[in-house]
Amino acid sequence: MKKTLSLITLNAGLLMIAYGWLLAFWQQSVNINPVSSDFLIPELPDPQILLRDFPKPPKSLPVLSPVKTPLPNYMGMDEQIWGKNQQAGDKIALLKSIDNSLRYLSSPQAITDYRKYTIPGITRDRVIRSLTRFRQLVRTSGDAAQLWSEVQKEFVFYQSIGRDGLGNVLFTAYYEPVYDASRTPTSEYRYPLYRLPPNLKSWSKPHPTRKQLEGKDGLQADKGKLKGLELFWLRDRLEAYLIHIQGSAKLRLTDGTITTVGYAGNTAYNYSSIGKALADDGKLPLENLTLPVIWQYFHQNPQELDNYLPRDRSFVFFQENYGRPATGSISVPLTADRSIATDKSIMPPGALALIHAPLPYADANQKIQFNTVSRYVLDQDTGGAIKGAGRVDYFLGTGKVAQQRAGMTVSNGYLYYLLLKQ
């Protein structure tokens, strides 16, 4: 599986991190009305349910099914294209994201991918025609209502079965962090990111754990298999670790230049959440356990990093991307608030989708608030933690605000793919 940005991004571990903050919010205000479709879709559940495993849908149910009854108008009102939620309109960004998908769909890789795609009615040719027509509608529509009216006339909505057979899809988010780094080790920059070992495929299994590769303190890798594979050095061990979680980063180097790193490979272990471990050990209360709280805890108790980081046995390797933007699994740049990651073994790569879910936004004072929104998005990425029809990871862009939003994103919503009527 190829993954260039979010191999192990905000998954069950982030659900635990975000749970406490979201509990109060959900109890007060978040709700989505039932959707008129063939599925019996309940209102969004209590947030505690978000942390539990839903009953898996019967294997006899198709992953995606055409909706036979009209969706309510609120489902398709993507006002962000023209500006909403304290943010400028992003029509140009949406059009570029569509163009990125069309470029992928014209590639030999897309031809190969769609030869293996088995859901009836969803073909590479139909996806291309759908994107081309939708692009025209975005350019000519004057507002969200006009665009939605035209989309309803011309497109069929294929709804994801979700993780319960009722259409409930769990949304999390990921981002590209920005950190200071050095190309050489110094007394200040001590914690490395590593290149992909050229002989990784020949490593015996089980692979070495994180602790075995870099030591309990994260500084012993030059004594083992990773010696000579250092790519960059970070000043903060936790920053280096968060790059492992996100799968990419933008780096400000000591000489004043900017570069980027992206995912190149990983060891054969699943990610284990340090946030969950802290809560399980009683170090931090589950209530209000956000990413900034965890960050503050480790900066106040740096010795605890030696205890908790090695509990995550997984390890990620990187490559330098020389300033190129964050890139998805279909090898195109990702677009903030317009790219999603799904399970590409079942979802159509590069396709146009519509999501409807509560998502966090920063207001003019950088305060995060939630709004239940609809977004036209492009399915351009995948992730090791994004499995099944009931999971979507939403790309939020680069930097601190994106990080803050991603740390608070966990909600149930709905996912539809848009295909032109036959």
TrEMBL record:
Upper classification of the organism: Bacteria, Bacillati, Cyanobacteriota, Cyanophyceae, Oscillatoriophycideae
Taxonomic superkingdom: Bacteria
UniProt domain Lytic transglycosylase MltA: residue ranges: 178-319
Name of this protein: peptidoglycan lytic exotransglycosylase
SUPFAM superfamilies the record matches: Barwin-like endoglucanases (SSF50685)
Pfam families: 3D (PF06725), MltA (PF03562)
Alphabetical UniProt keywords: Cell wall biogenesis/degradation, Lyase, Membrane, Transmembrane, Transmembrane helix
Ranges that cross the membrane: 7-26
